């Protein structure tokens, strides 16, 4: 593909990438398929399409792309290689085997330069082996030192360097006067020289953009060997810790925090601020201490202050599988990275001939695909996206379509779910009876799975609302069966029954009143979901959908019973939503005897209120789509008959009253949130009199910092909730049939 045609393809793909990154997935996909249909063979178009398909999480399309390319350019080793790797990403092992035959024909002999490098490395290794066999420790030491100057990340040479060094020290070896130290050059024969050499390697590496780990591990190895030999002063190695190292007093700080956590759980409110103060101050002196960060995450989350948590989690620099093992502490952790990278590991293993690792990586990928935490994050992320976008910037139907959601499909592997959480990631010095037990692990997994089932069913029920599309003519059962809509309402009703069963199981589970250790697994939000009435509200809303559908199917005639049932549902819903709002009232932070007292449960209730009112509005939009055509038909009949007054069915009045009350309730909640914002803004932390006057000025500074972080987090949370409710209020105002 040459000239203008090639340029045309490249421009289209770049445009598609732009559309994908601005949230216009459907347009991007259509454009990409247009280019793919042209079967491009230029590298730029192929690479750009590969990038686009990866961002779309559609690796199977990359295989089709390169299948077309190798048909047109069968002699391209590069395209065959790309096709092989594309098959590896999607697990098409038979096709990989077929493609390998073609790849074998492209294998070429290594260049002379590669041969020369290999021979040189072989010579050095043979020399080293010979020197060791002959116990020529000066030569061993000098050669390993010289090789480390070339490559300071080669661990085998560090081991040889240390082995030879201590052999020379034990033999009291000294260099011959006026001669070369050895056949290989300068020899190190004292601890002082070794210390200086390792510190120089660390200094050199610290200048690089990506320092190698070899010199740092070598320092630890030297300290270990010196300790083993009884050199307790370790020749100043580690005397003053670097900022990147754990500090000597870190464990004392952790012990103090653990004791304070116990006091907090026993009702001593001031203890939580002392915990956070100690941890923030400790982190300022020991910024690499993961335990400090994990405990801060845990406590801030327990207080409902999520704003400082994002930065703390990011600073942990969690790698790959760690997102799955520690992400439960902070559930917003991105999960695409580890799952995508497992495919890349498989490809790297093929590239570099590490074939024995490939089954391990495949098993690892399967384990991640069945991850409980991944299923939770994915479900909560989609629910959150719907809350923030659906019927605001895009319609509910468009939002659900972009997520490829379907009420009939349940892609969570319930039977194979794997609990990959590391529940012992936090240090714990509690006695066994207060430590996390196997029973705690089992119960926590059971609770997490129950909560995931409730959330998944809720998501699927919401995704089913746009499928109940209204047709103006009343439908009879035969037509319904033909066009498949009956199966849609059957799916909704079946999911609703499953949701009720899951909720019942959850309530029974909570009757056990399980208390997990404070350093063990955090509980789910299931208890709050039941106690504040959100569950009952949401279940009632989905039952309302079933009733409205029945009215839509049977028509307005002879439907007095259904209309009455719908009217009662509207009244009951308003009462339940009002009750939920009442459980949101109160101050998030209050001052008692100079100490801040937080009420994170109020914030959780507000979040559940926003979620429930959003579902109420999506259901109301469905009601509106059914009732509006009915009213329009009645008005047309009234005009034809020229009657001045035609009795309107009561369902219209019920719906209008319901919408009016929803509008009033939402306005009241917005006013309440404005009040919370004013209180949080007016709260002057510097005027708080700290009970513990023995605190140093530095400690007082950190106390103000942590209190300020919690205050700021609450403030931004209620601001976001208020903004979202204002958008929802605008939606309610449009529901006037």
Overview of the structural elements:
Among the domains are: 3-104, Tetratricopeptide repeat domain (Serine Threonine Protein Phosphatase 5, Tetratricopeptide repeat), CATH 1.25.40.10; 118-236, no CATH class; 336-367; 532-636 and 648-737, Delta-Endotoxin, domain 1 (Up-down Bundle), CATH 1.20.190. Helix content is 68%, strand content 1%. The protein has helices spanning 3-21, 25-37, 43-55, 59-72, 77-90, 93-104, 112-133, 137-150, 155-170, 191-206, 214-228, 250-265, 270-285, 290-302, 307-315, 322-325, 336-351, 358-369, 372-389, 396-402, 438-464, 477-483, 485-510, 526-531, 534-554, 560-582, 600-641, 650-682, 697-733, and strands at 589-592, 595-598. A two-stranded antiparallel sheet has the order 1-2. Strand 1 and strand 2 (595-598) form a beta hairpin. It starts with a helix and ends with a helix. The model is unreliable at 109-113, 332-339 and 471-482 (pLDDT under 50).
Q: What is the molecular shape?
A: globular
CATH architecture of one domain, please?
Answer: Up-down Bundle
- Quote the CATH topology of one domain: Delta-Endotoxin, domain 1
SSE-based structural type: mainly alpha
Portion in strands: under 5%
- By CATH reckoning, the class of one domain would read Mainly Alpha
Can you list the strand order of the major beta sheet?
A: 1-2
Spans of at least 5 consecutive residues whose pLDDT stays below 50 are 109-113, 332-339, 471-482
* Major beta sheet summary: 2 strands, antiparallel
**DSSP helix fraction:** 55-70%
Mean pLDDT, all residues: 85
